[in-house]
Write a structure and sequence with these properties.
- It contains 18 helices and seven strands.
- The chain is an alpha+beta fold.
- It folds into two domains: 230 residues, Rhopdopsin 7-helix transmembrane proteins, CATH 1.20.1070; 151 residues, 2-Layer Sandwich (Heat Shock Protein 90), CATH 3.30.565.
- Strands 2-4-5-7-6 form a five-stranded mixed β-sheet, with helices on one face. Strands 1-3 form a two-stranded antiparallel sheet.
- It is elongated, with a radius of gyration of 35 Å.
């Protein structure tokens, strides 16, 4: 009987027996810990959770007896906190809704409910501001307490329960932490709040609700961070696997090239002794063309290392900034581009339609790294059937790459690249025009080493066109034209003319 009496005394005198001090210390520790986690992870969920726990702490600690913070806090401040306790509860319950929005990412999963919650929160804030003004003016908190008890608590509870029902239907493993914690809190807190209106003795239930809720919320934030790290690791593994597949393909093509060169060399040496000069010349030409074809295949599988390095850095930047949608979108576009290049590397020729599709994808990938600042347009003449025009793969990429990184990357203001295709007198004219800084200024900005490297890429492209259209007259041609406006460089026009 005495044990029961002691237990009853402990549960009904939480402010004087240390329970309130324990809960206040627990809340303060959680708030400080997650406040620093916000700066580490740059995730607003931690910030709102820290704000929620510190406001709850401010609500709880003035009631604790023999607590050093309570002792050093002036009587006037403690009276104000108690006087405006309903407003304080009003605020941290709204912060709780904001925390839920960011924790489960409602804007992505349930946008309509997300909009409803935003409007509801704004409505509650307006009502609270009006009530606070009235309370300050009249110095009477009875209206504030009544509206909180008989309007805010019932309505926000309904919204909270409905939000939990919406969260339950979302496909996410971390939802159970917030569902369990919130369900326990809402049930015990409401019972505790209304029961104290008739008799004192259930405040301990509210503290139990706070304890359980915050334990589950803290565990949920840890689970969320673990899920993010797991997704990041899986993403990195996928990149490594893609890179390894590319290296294997390169080795296979190189091996094939070496075998072909060895066999053809042996065949030429043998025919030098047996056949006439004309036969040897023909065979040498065939060998040269075949070798060039294989080298073209090998080159087509090699992405520019700077392009891959910068693309991976861009994805890393999105992950660090917690922009998972942008990282996923960028990875999807980059993977698709690499896959198309690997597929085309097995082909001697592709249609102009396929080449332009790859170039559009390449511009999209580069444009994401430049904050989507480049406007890209494509215009096809009505008399051109792109599916009947054949060219070697990736012959347009060096020109577009030069336009982006040497014409537009350092340009301020509007950036444009336009590609047009026209047919005239049995020729196809592919025009690539940018409004960049011009070749003269680009040459000043580049080091000699980079200039030689880019020039080699253009030279190789010209040789590939000549080899592909061998025997056709007149030969294909690449023409560079510097554009000016009011005697000021206004971009570059590249015209690739190919016979039909």
């Amino acid at each position: 009987m005495e044990t029961q009496h002691n237990l009853h005394y402990i549960l009904t005198h939480t402010d004087s027996n240390g329970i309130t001090i324990f809960i206040a210390s627990f809340l303060f520790t959680l708030s400080v810990y997650h406040f620093f986690l916000y700066f580490q992870h740059k995730d607003k969920t931690y910030l709102f959770y820290s704000l929620y726990t510190i406001l709850t702490f401010i609500y709880v600690f003035p009631k604790a007896q023999n607590f050093f913070l309570t002792e050093i806090t002036s009587q006037k401040i403690k009276q104000l906190l108690i006087f405006y306790s309903s407003a304080l509860q009003w605020i941290f319950n709204l912060i709780y809704l904001v925390f839920l929005i960011h924790y489960i990412r409602l804007k992505k999963h349930r946008p309509k409910w997300y909009d409803f919650l935003k409007k509801s929160i704004r409505f509650y804030v307006v009502i609270l501001i009006l009530l606070l003004n009235y309370t300050i003016y009249t110095k009477d908190n009875s209206v504030l307490d009544a509206v909180y008890a008989f309007f805010f608590i019932p309505t926000v509870t309904i919204i909270g329960v409905a939000t939990l029902a919406v969260i339950y239907r979302i496909n996410s493993v971390i939802k159970y932490y917030v569902l369990i914690g919130s369900t326990v809190y809402i049930s015990l807190a409401i019972y505790s709040y209304y029961s104290t209106m008739s008799e004192y003795g259930t405040t301990f239930l509210y503290y139990i609700a706070l304890l359980i809720e915050n334990i589950f919320f803290a565990l949920g934030l840890g689970a969320k961070q673990k899920m993010i790290l797991t997704e990041k690791n899986n993403f990195q593994k996928a990149l490594i696997k893609e890179h390894q597949e590319k290296l294997v393909l390169q080795k296979d093509i190189q091996k094939k090239l070496d075998i072909e060169v060895a066999e053809k060399t042996k065949e030429i040496l043998q025919l030098n002794k047996e056949k006439e000069k004309e036969t040897k010349k023909k065979l040498a030409a065939e060998f040269s063309k075949r070798t060039l074809d294989l080298r073209m295949q090998a080159l087509q599988t090699q992405m520019n290392p700077h392009f891959l390095f910068n693309s991976l850095n861009a994805i890393k930047h999105f992950i660090i900034k917690n922009k998972k949608e942008d990282a996923s979108y960028f990875l999807s576009k980059l993977s698709k581009l690499i896959r198309k290049i690997l597929d085309n590397s097995q082909l001697f020729e592709i249609t102009l339609q396929e080449e332009l599709e790859v170039m559009q994808l390449y511009v999209n990938v580069e444009n994401m790294r430049l904050d989507k600042s480049i406007a890209f347009t494509l215009k096809i003449s009505d008399n051109c059937n792109l599916n009947t025009i054949k060219i070697p793969p990736l012959v347009l990429q060096p020109f577009i790459e030069n336009a982006i990184w040497h014409g537009l990357a350092l340009k301020q203001g509007e950036k444009q690249i336009s590609v047009s295709v026209e047919k005239e007198n049995n020729y196809c004219y592919i025009k690539i025009q940018d409004n960049g800084i011009g070749r003269e200024q680009a040459a000043i900005n580049k080091s000699a080493k980079i200039i030689d490297k880019k020039s080699l890429g253009i030279l190789l492209t010209k040789k590939r066109l000549l080899a592909y259209f061998e025997g056709k007259e007149p030969k294909p041609e690449v023409i560079f034209t510097d554009l000016y406006k009011n005697n000021t460089p206004a971009g570059t026009l590249v015209v690739v003319r190919i016979p039909l």
